[in-house]
Design a protein that fits this description.
- This protein has a three-stranded antiparallel β-sheet with strand order 3-4-5. A two-stranded antiparallel ribbon has the order 1-2.
- Helices cover about 65% and strands about 5% of the residues.
- The longest helix is centred in the first third of the chain and has 42 residues.
- A hairpin with a 2-residue loop joins strand 1 and strand 2.
- By secondary structure, the protein is mostly helical.
Length: about 450
């Protein structure tokens, strides 16, 4: 893709790209305040730093979209959400964001006037292979010294197009275990997507292209990814190994507070999304008043089924299931409906009280005059019990059990897959000092003590 410095460069003159933002040169080849070449290089580099600075601002909001699914996949694939693999994933997301912004920025300031003035993309796509080599050659005017090469905008443009997808090649080989052919295909497809984005004027946001489709960019980007793939072969021996099976065998049986919180958050979001969809369908089929009246009833029924009936019947909630947790008794047996009911009543007391208060405030439920004050008075201790005392007790107690778990006689246990049952070993050695193989019952119920986070 064509990457240009900020300040829309002018047309090519004698093999050089003259930037309109640069002062006119004085006689003798110098510009006001210093040599023209000394000013040109910082200007070019500034154009490449602008998208990176923008990516730093945008990345936290983009990362929020990936936190929940990435954490779930981490627990299912590796037995934990953090670690080196998670750091690689988010760095990969940041890199893709920065690379995309490199092909889009800077944007034209005046959309209406952009297509009425001449610009370097108005000549149509550049379809001549290796045209960049001729441009650089013309710009040197026979002087191939390093000092002259670094002063040419075409040199920097070609170099940064070569480097743009080099990290992609590293990620594809080291992180995603792709071969050379797969890496080349992905890099070519990525570069083609970037070039098409430029050719269509940011997918028809602009009525004409504000950057040029250039076949040389396809070649340089793909070549850069291939070089990155070659570099990753050497680099991979000096970096931590990506071994999901080893991580899963080590961390898969641990029931940490972040894992439990993720399960609860997944349940809460799933319930809210389901309630919203049901209410929206009722409003679409009837009217707003009917949807409002039915909405609270639908939310109550769905909540009772999600947080109480499902775990009472299956020993797990949808949120716990996605992170491979199950409600058990400390001895590994099933808790039964009564213990599950006590656990759910204590654990979800703040949610139930808050929901009842909302129903009373909206007029969906008629309660005595002092009921609102009683609900508010009960909500505070319930919140402290579940969200303050329980996490602290789980951290400080050796068995990691929260107060509502001790009261109900239940615990959270990790459920290992069949492949994990064949590779997982107990952290506690047997009598002869050799780690023992976990039994089917141990791995299915996760009866191993759960370490802290």
């Amino acid at each position: 893709m064509v990457i240009r410095a900020a300040g829309s460069p002018g047309p090519v003159r004698g093999g050089r790209l003259h930037d309109r933002t640069r002062p006119n040169p004085l006689p003798g080849g110098t510009a006001a305040g210093g040599g023209a070449r000394r000013r040109k290089r910082p200007l070019v580099l500034t154009g490449y730093l602008l998208p990176v600075q923008t990516a730093l601002w945008v990345f936290p909001f983009v990362a929020l979209l990936f936190v929940l699914p990435a954490a779930i996949m981490g627990y299912r694939r590796r037995g934990r959400a953090g670690g080196w693999s998670a750091l690689l994933f988010y760095s990969f997301v940041f890199y893709l964001l920065a690379a995309l912004l490199q092909t889009m920025m800077p944007l034209p300031t005046d959309i209406d006037a952009h297509c009425t003035v001449a610009n370097y993309s108005s000549g149509g796509p550049q379809l001549e292979p290796l045209h960049f080599a001729r441009t650089v050659s013309q710009g040197t005017a026979g002087d191939w010294s390093p000092q002259n090469l670094v002063s040419l905008t075409s040199t920097w443009t070609s170099l940064f197009n070569l480097l743009l997808l080099l990290p992609l090649g590293v990620y594809l080989r080291y992180y995603m275990r792709q071969g050379l052919l797969g890496t080349t295909a992905v890099a070519l497809g990525t570069s083609l997507f970037f070039e098409t984005t430029q050719l269509t004027g940011l997918w028809f946001v602009y009525t004409c292209p504000y950057r040029q489709f250039n076949v040389d960019d396809l070649l340089l980007n793909t070549l850069g990814a291939v070089l990155g793939w070659l570099v990753a072969g050497r680099l991979g021996h000096r970096l931590p190994a990506i071994a999901p099976d080893r991580e899963r065998a080590r961390y898969g049986s641990r029931v940490t507070l972040p894992r439990r919180f993720l399960a609860y958050l997944t349940d809460l979001l799933g319930w809210l999304v389901g309630w919203t969809l049901v209410t929206g369908l009722v409003v679409a089929a009837t009217d707003t008043t009917t949807g409002r009246e039915f909405g609270m009833q639908a939310g109550t029924v769905l909540g009772l089924a999600w947080f109480w009936l499902v775990p009472a019947a299956f020993g797990t909630t949808p949120g716990k299931r996605v992170v491979r947790l199950r409600i058990m008794r400390p001895d590994g047996s099933r808790p039964g409906p009564f213990r599950t009911t006590v656990r759910c009543a204590l654990l979800h007391a703040p949610l139930a009280l808050g929901w009842l208060l909302l129903a009373e405030r909206t007029g969906m439920v008629a309660l005595p005059d002092r009921a609102e004050w009683l609900l508010l008075a009960a909500l505070l201790p319930a919140f402290v019990l579940v969200w303050v005392w329980s996490p602290l007790a789980a951290l400080l107690r050796g068995d990691g059990r929260a107060p509502y778990e001790r009261a109900s006689g239940t615990v959270n246990r990790a459920v290992l897959s069949r492949r994990e049952r064949g590779t997982a070993t107990s952290e506690e050695p047997s009598a002869d000092g050799v780690p023992k193989q976990l039994s089917h019952e141990d791995t299915a119920s996760g009866s191993r003590p759960a370490p802290g986070p």
